Automatic annotation (TrEMBL):
Organism field: Pseudictyota dubia
Signal sequence region: none
Lineage: Eukaryota, Sar, Stramenopiles, Ochrophyta, Bacillariophyta
UniProt-recorded name of the protein: Uncharacterized protein
Gene Ontology biological process: trehalose biosynthetic process
A GO term from the CC aspect: cytosol
Length: 124
């Protein structure tokens, strides 16, 4: 059913469950501006010094099940499995933010992330 404010509601077991959708976009002008900040250029240089001769992939995501962060780690693992030549050529630096807005979900997601990171480090 359509609800006030453009929300979509589904009746499920006597309750109305809200369905929301969020488009993700990248604003090139904001990214370009951020890339010139001293903290970003300093951090970038430090990462390249720490991982010389490697492609550095950096991610910042919320540690919640629907954010896709676990899928990102699984995709990185798949890359290293399917293309072993990249084992010594790429590094993923991932920051997981825990806003504490969904505590149970965040605890489970962080647990899963730690498991995946340990598996990737162990295997590659």
């Amino acid at each position: 059913e359509s609800l006030v404010g453009g929300l979509i509601g589904l009746k499920f077991r006597g309750r109305t469950v809200l369905v929301t959708m969020h488009n993700v976009s990248v604003e090139p002008s904001l990214v370009d501006a951020a890339l010139t900040l001293p903290s970003v250029t300093t951090g970038s240089a430090a990462l390249h010094r720490k991982h010389p001769d490697r492609v550095v992939i950096v991610g910042v995501d919320i540690a919640q099940g629907l954010s896709g962060i676990t899928l990102k780690l699984l995709a990185f693992e798949k890359l290293l499995t399917d293309y072993p030549v990249w084992k010594t050529k790429v590094v993923l630096v991932q920051k997981a933010l825990v806003p504490r807005s969904r505590p149970h979900d965040e605890v489970n997601t962080v647990r899963e992330l730690r498991f995946l990171v340990h598996r990737i480090v162990r295997n590659f």
